[in-house]
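the two lines:
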Amino acid sequence: MTLIRIAAFLFACSLPAASFAADSDGLVLPRGFTATVVHDGVGLARHIAIRDNGDLYVTTHQFAFLGFDARKRVGIVALRDSNGDHLPDVVEHFSDLDGTGIAIYKGMLYVSDDVGVYRYRFDGNELLPKQPAETVVGGFPAERTHADKTFTFDNDGHLYVNVGAPSNSCQEQDRAQGSMGQNPCPLLEHYGGIWRFDADRINQTPKDGTRYSTGMRNTIALAWNNDVNALYATIHGRDQLDTIFPKLFTADDNAERVAEEFQRIVEGGDYGWPYAYYDTKLKARVVAPEYGGDGKKRAEAGKYPEPLVAFPAHWAPDDMVFYAGKNFPASYAGGAFIAFHGSWNRAPRPQAGYRVAFVPMKNGTPSGEWQTFADNFTGGALPDNNPNKARTRPVGLAVDSAGALYIVDSEKGRIWRVTYGGS
Amino acid sequence: MRTLHVASATLGIACLTACASQPASHAHADRGQAAYESNCLACHQADGTGVRGFQPALVGSDWVRGDPKVLATFVLTGGFDSAGRKLSANENVMPPFSHLDDATLAAALTYVRMKFGDQASAVSAEEVAAARAQLPPAH
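prediction for all of em together
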C-alpha cells in the first residue's frame, strides 16, 4: 500500500480564487444556485464519497495525474476542510486503486476497480485509513470493455454491483459490420446485469453473488432510493447502429435513437440488452438489428420494462444520487440528479450530453419532465467535436450533510460544490 | 536562350505531370476521406485523436506511420499482425475491416497517413491486396 503525501504542493497550486464563486466557474445553473470550485483538479477523477465528518474521497482512473509525476498512480484522493469554509486545506492521496466506485457504508470507505470491491476501515477521525484494504468481492474477470464494478447498497445489508457486458451488442464479432448477435447471448450468464452480495462479508467471489437483474449493457450510475426502498439505475444504451448495419441505419439514427434508460430495477428484471433497445423517436422498445430488427420491429410487448425516462442517445450517465438534503428548494426533495459524462459515439453529428440532469420524483416515480440542472461543462462547442477537448466533463456526484451537491469532473478532477441561496 | 528553352521545357514537363496527376490524387483523397468518415471517424473522431479510455489516437501512432502492409494487416484483421499476434488492445475492440475492397481501404489508409501520420506515404490497393493475401489463419 503506497502512501504519497503531496498536500502542501497540491493545495498551494490549486486554492480557488473567490471569483470562481461569483460566476459559478462558467457553469450554468438554475437561478439561485451557485457552484464553488472546491478543488481545481485532483487528476483523472471519477466518483466521490463524503464521510460523516465532511472529508471527501475521490477515485481516479488511468494513473496519470495532471501536474504530478504521471508514472505514479493517484489512487484515492482525500480532501479535508479544517476551518469550515468548505475549501479543503488538506489534500492527500493513498492506495494504488485505479477505479471508479466509492461510497461510505457503516462508516467504512468502500471502493471498486475493474475486478473487485474493497473497503477501508477508519479507527477514528483520521483522513487516511491506517489499515490496508480488505477485499469485499474479488476475482471478477479482467475485461477491457464496461469493466467498472460500480456499486451501491440497500438498507438490509446488501451490496449491488454493476457487472457490465464486455461487448457492445453481443455480436459474434464485437462491433464488426454485419456480424449477427449470439442467441442466446452467453455473456448474460456472468455479465450484463446487477449482482447482489453481502455488504458486510469480506473475501467473497463472484459466485457468492446472485444475479439481481439482467439485460443491462453497462450501468455505472446506480443509486438506492430510500423513499421507496428500491434500486434505480441509468443504463448505457448500445453504440454504432449505423457503422454495424449501414443499410438499415443512418448516422442520425445512431446519434439520436438509442435511449440511455433511467429505470427502477426490480429483482429478476430483464432490461433487454442485447436483444432490444428503446428507440427515443418511436418511444418504443425495438428489436436490435443483430437479432433481426430493422429499426421498426417492436420487441415482444411487456417483456422489458419501459424506462422511467428515455434520455438522449450516447449521453453516458455515469453517476446518480437521490436528493435528501435540506439546502435545495422543496421541489428537489426525493428527485434524482444524474451526471452525464457526454457522448463520443454521436460523431460525425455534434457530441452531446456533458451535463447534470435532474428528474423530479414523487414516491419513486418521475413527477415532471427532467431538466438540465448544471450545464456548460465543456465551455461551449467541443473543439473538433472531440470529447478529449472538453474543458470539463461531469462524472461523479454526492450530497453533503448540509445538502450541497458535489460534482466531480473527469478531465482535470475539478470538484464543485453547488449550493442554493448563496450559502 | 538555350538555357531558357531547357528551363521552360523542364517546367512544361513538371506542369504536365502535376496537372495530369492532380485530379486523380484529389479523387483518391476525397475517396479516402469519405471512407474514413464512414468507417473510422465514429471511433477515432474527426481529428484522429480517438477518445481517451475507449479508442486510441491515430495521431502519433507508430502503426499509422509505419509499414503500409503491417498497417493494412492491422486494419483487415482488427489489430493483429500477419502471424496472428494481437498488436493492440484498447477498451473497445477494433473490428476487422476485411469487408472493404482493396481500393477503398487503400484510400482510407492513405488519408489517415496523410492527415494523422506525419504525411507518411500513400498506401496502394496492391499493398492492401498483398496484405489480404497473407492474413493469419482465422482472419
